[in-house]
What does this fold into?
Amino acid sequence: QVQLVESGGGLVQAGGSLRLSCAASLRTFGYYSMGWFRQAPGKEREFVAAITWSGGTTVYADSLKGRFTISRDNTKNTVNLQMNSLKPEDTAVYYCAADPRSTQYMANSASIASINYWGQGTQVTVSS
It folds into this structure.
Protein backbone atom coordinates (compact mmCIF):
# COMPACT_ATOMS: atom_id res chain seq x y z
CA GLN A 1 0.00 0.00 0.00
CA VAL A 2 1.37 3.37 -1.02
CA GLN A 3 1.72 6.00 1.66
CA LEU A 4 2.94 9.56 1.45
CA VAL A 5 3.43 11.18 4.84
CA GLU A 6 4.14 14.89 5.09
CA SER A 7 5.79 16.62 8.03
CA GLY A 8 7.30 19.97 8.91
CA GLY A 9 4.27 22.22 8.77
CA GLY A 10 3.48 24.72 11.47
CA LEU A 11 3.06 28.37 12.38
CA VAL A 12 5.67 30.87 11.25
CA GLN A 13 5.87 34.64 11.03
CA ALA A 14 5.96 36.41 7.71
CA GLY A 15 9.49 36.43 6.34
CA GLY A 16 10.35 33.17 8.05
CA SER A 17 11.16 29.75 6.63
CA LEU A 18 9.84 26.21 6.87
CA ARG A 19 11.04 22.93 5.42
CA LEU A 20 8.43 20.34 4.55
CA SER A 21 9.31 16.70 4.10
CA CYS A 22 7.43 13.82 2.55
CA ALA A 23 8.29 10.20 3.23
CA ALA A 24 7.08 7.78 0.57
CA SER A 25 6.50 4.06 0.90
CA LEU A 26 6.64 3.58 -2.86
CA ARG A 27 8.77 0.56 -3.78
CA THR A 28 9.64 2.22 -7.08
CA PHE A 29 10.04 5.72 -5.68
CA GLY A 30 12.86 6.44 -8.05
CA TYR A 31 10.54 6.09 -11.04
CA TYR A 32 8.04 8.69 -9.88
CA SER A 33 7.87 12.40 -10.39
CA MET A 34 7.16 14.01 -7.03
CA GLY A 35 5.33 17.21 -6.38
CA TRP A 36 3.97 19.61 -3.81
CA PHE A 37 0.56 21.22 -4.00
CA ARG A 38 -1.36 23.47 -1.65
CA GLN A 39 -4.93 24.33 -0.87
CA ALA A 40 -6.00 27.43 0.97
CA PRO A 41 -9.43 27.70 2.64
CA GLY A 42 -12.14 28.27 0.06
CA LYS A 43 -9.74 27.81 -2.86
CA GLU A 44 -8.90 25.01 -5.24
CA ARG A 45 -5.81 22.91 -4.86
CA GLU A 46 -2.91 24.41 -6.77
CA PHE A 47 0.46 23.30 -8.02
CA VAL A 48 3.53 24.44 -6.08
CA ALA A 49 6.54 22.50 -7.39
CA ALA A 50 7.57 19.20 -8.94
CA ILE A 51 10.78 17.27 -9.49
CA THR A 52 11.68 14.50 -11.93
CA TRP A 53 12.59 10.99 -10.82
CA SER A 54 16.29 11.79 -11.13
CA GLY A 55 16.06 15.17 -9.47
CA GLY A 56 17.59 16.71 -12.55
CA THR A 57 14.63 18.88 -13.47
CA THR A 58 12.40 21.00 -11.28
CA VAL A 59 9.29 22.97 -12.12
CA TYR A 60 7.74 25.70 -10.01
CA ALA A 61 4.60 27.76 -10.01
CA ASP A 62 5.62 31.09 -11.49
CA SER A 63 4.56 33.04 -8.42
CA LEU A 64 6.80 30.95 -6.14
CA LYS A 65 10.04 30.87 -8.10
CA GLY A 66 12.97 32.07 -6.05
CA ARG A 67 11.33 31.46 -2.67
CA PHE A 68 10.58 27.73 -2.74
CA THR A 69 12.99 24.90 -3.53
CA ILE A 70 12.06 21.26 -4.09
CA SER A 71 14.55 18.44 -3.68
CA ARG A 72 14.51 14.67 -3.31
CA ASP A 73 16.65 11.88 -1.90
CA ASN A 74 15.98 8.61 -3.67
CA THR A 75 18.10 6.70 -1.15
CA LYS A 76 15.70 7.75 1.61
CA ASN A 77 12.48 7.91 -0.44
CA THR A 78 11.92 11.50 0.60
CA VAL A 79 11.04 14.75 -1.11
CA ASN A 80 11.46 18.13 0.53
CA LEU A 81 10.15 21.64 0.05
CA GLN A 82 12.22 24.48 1.44
CA MET A 83 10.06 27.59 1.79
CA ASN A 84 11.73 30.93 2.42
CA SER A 85 10.46 34.49 2.78
CA LEU A 86 7.04 33.18 3.63
CA LYS A 87 4.01 35.40 3.23
CA PRO A 88 0.55 35.24 4.80
CA GLU A 89 -0.85 34.23 1.41
CA ASP A 90 1.28 31.07 1.58
CA THR A 91 -1.03 29.84 4.35
CA ALA A 92 -2.54 26.55 3.19
CA VAL A 93 -2.55 22.82 3.62
CA TYR A 94 0.43 21.47 1.68
CA TYR A 95 0.16 18.10 0.00
CA CYS A 96 2.82 15.77 -1.31
CA ALA A 97 2.02 13.90 -4.52
CA ALA A 98 3.55 11.15 -6.63
CA ASP A 99 2.90 10.29 -10.25
CA PRO A 100 4.79 8.28 -12.87
CA ARG A 101 4.15 10.93 -15.50
CA SER A 102 6.18 14.07 -16.12
CA THR A 103 6.67 17.13 -13.98
CA GLN A 104 4.95 19.15 -16.69
CA TYR A 105 1.95 16.87 -16.32
CA MET A 106 1.90 17.51 -12.58
CA ALA A 107 2.18 21.25 -13.15
CA ASN A 108 -0.92 21.30 -15.33
CA SER A 109 -3.96 22.24 -13.27
CA ALA A 110 -6.12 19.96 -15.40
CA SER A 111 -4.05 16.97 -14.23
CA ILE A 112 -4.60 17.40 -10.50
CA ALA A 113 -7.62 15.11 -10.34
CA SER A 114 -5.66 12.34 -12.10
CA ILE A 115 -2.49 12.36 -10.02
CA ASN A 116 -1.87 8.87 -8.66
CA TYR A 117 -0.96 9.33 -5.02
CA TRP A 118 -1.51 12.00 -2.37
CA GLY A 119 -0.44 12.51 1.18
CA GLN A 120 -2.85 13.62 3.88
CA GLY A 121 -1.44 17.15 3.99
CA THR A 122 0.33 19.35 6.50
CA GLN A 123 -0.87 22.76 7.63
CA VAL A 124 1.31 25.80 7.07
CA THR A 125 0.18 29.04 8.68
CA VAL A 126 2.04 32.30 8.11
CA SER A 127 1.16 35.13 10.44
CA SER A 128 1.55 38.78 9.50
Remarks:
- DSSP finds one helix and eleven strands in the chain.
